[in-house]
Amino acid sequence: MIELLGWTGVVICFVLMLYHRYMHTNYDQVYAYIRKKYAEDNDQADFPSKEDHARYSRKYSIYTIFFACLLIILNFFR
């Protein structure tokens, strides 16, 4: 059961890391598209900054490494 939680953590953190890395690298195009498609003319929507996406990407990279190490350690005790 703990191994299943480890794999779930790895997958979720990896996907979130990829999402935030994509949003960081394509920040201008993504938010320009969102503003054009969904925002009203007088609506000034607040979006996360590019630095926020970089920080989240780094955080989820560390979480991914943690869960991967946890799975490696669990495999030693099998």
From TrEMBL:
This is Uncharacterized protein. Keywords: Membrane, Transmembrane, Transmembrane helix. The chain crosses the membrane at residues 6-22, 60-77. It comes from the Bacteria.
